[in-house]
Amino acid sequence: MSKTNFEFLDALSQIARDKGISVDTLLDALANALVAAYKRRPDAAEEAVVTIDPESGEIRVYGQELDEDGNVIREWDDTPADFGRIAAQTAKQVILQRIREVERDMKYEEYAGREGDIVTGIVQQTDNRYTLLDLGKVEALLPQAEQVSYERYEHGARLKAYIVEVRKTTKGPQIVVSRTHPGLIKRLFELEVPEISSGVVELKAVAREPGHRTKIAVWSNDPNVDPVGACVGARGSRVRMVTNELRGERVDVVPFSDDPVELIQNALAPARVREVRLDDATGTATVIVSDYQLSLAIGKEGQNARLAARLTGWRIDIKSETQLEEEAAYEGQDWAEGEWVEDESGEMVWKPAEGGEVISAEAWSQAAEEQSEEPATGGDGSSGPGDGATGDGPPPVAAATEASGDD
């Protein structure tokens, strides 16, 4: 082996080790490139093959003659005298290009199967469109739409994110990550709770409003393991780690149940539910709570009720005991059908749906007051709640009829 060939193979092996590419892959790429370089010579054979001895580094070119079926019928050594110089020039270009291609493919293969996984990156760049995270060998893209609105990502800060998509591009893999995806919650709990990663505890459902609040429903496959306790940890240590990573987002952990009534009661925690009435036809659950629990069950701007509905899959209608009693008081009453409209003079009048004379607001109010002054009598003769109307809704049929007759 000549000194030149030895240095060539040594350099090739070093590049292969540094880049994680096999020497055979580089030799194949170089051989193909040398064939193309050889064929550019004016005296080159029509068909040729280049061989590179992996032991000695010797490069030979063999011209070939093929038959109609593509079989080699004659072969000869046609290595040009100055082919070493051509090989050296070609090798540098080919190896660099092949290294880039192989690195792109390796990076893509490494992340292609990791959609739905969690990664930790270092914030590199942030603007109003996206944030770049350095994952080591590649960069991840955190678009504006996948960012929590109030979070600010400082340069150099470490950040965990959820992989939602891996795209293959000519410049390498493009990894799109998210901080708002519900899957991020699941992966964070898997990191913090060994019982989830081992399969003893299952995370059955997640409902999330990114940056504000999350509810998760958990189930244990072992009767001796409390799923909520396992996720919360001693003195809340485990759930606190998740909350810290989410930068203060509140996380409620509730037990899962196959019974929809029990699941809805659990999902509305910390509010205490008195009763749940299910309507399977409409998928609606009417939840009855004590008066002092109503605001807690609904939550700030309806957040607790919304998250409970997403967690359970039921449309939840929350009512207090007082509201339920008021509705029961009006059950069985006939209400006039129609609508309030503005007449030609700009005055609001009641227009019955079945037609007939319209009723002025003044006449309607007078008739409603007269009817409210009359005591209502129940079916058993006892006094019941009054059935007068207010100006907020349609008048009872009796009041509407009386008012129409007065006109």
Helical residues, percent:
25-40%
Poorly predicted parts: 376-392, 397-404
**CATH topological fold name of the largest domain:** N Utilization Substance Protein A, Chain:P, domain 4
Distance between the termini: 119 Å
Coarse shape:
elongated
Name given to the CATH homologous superfamily of the largest domain: NusA, N-terminal domain
Global structural class: alpha+beta
Q: List the domain count as a whole number.
A: 5
How would a crystallographer describe the biggest sheet?
Answer: 5 strands, mixed, barrel
* Strands ordered across the widest β-sheet: 4-5-6-8-7
Q: What is the beta-strand fraction? A: 25-35%
CATH class of the largest domain: Alpha Beta
Question: What's the architecture of the largest domain in CATH terms?
Answer: 2-Layer Sandwich
Average per-residue pLDDT, rounded, comes to 82
Radius of gyration: 38 Å
Number of helices: 13
The helix/strand order is: HHEEEHEEEEEHHEEHHEHEEHHEHEEEHH
Give the total of beta strands. Answer: 17
SSE topology sketch:
Elements: H1 3-19, H2 23-39, E1 47-52, E2 59-66, E3 72-77, H3 83-112, E4 118-126, E5 130-134, E6 139-143, E7 158-169, E8 172-178, H4 182-192, H5 194-197, E9 201-209, E10 213-220, H6 227-232, H7 237-245, E11 250-255, H8 260-267, E12 273-279, E13 284-289, H9 294-298, H10 303-312, E14 315-320, H11 321-330, E15 338-342, E16 348-352, E17 359-360, H12 361-373, H13 397-406
Parallel strand pairs: 6-8, 10-11, 13-14
Antiparallel strand pairs: 1-2, 2-3, 4-5, 4-7, 5-6, 7-8, 9-10, 12-13, 15-16, 16-17
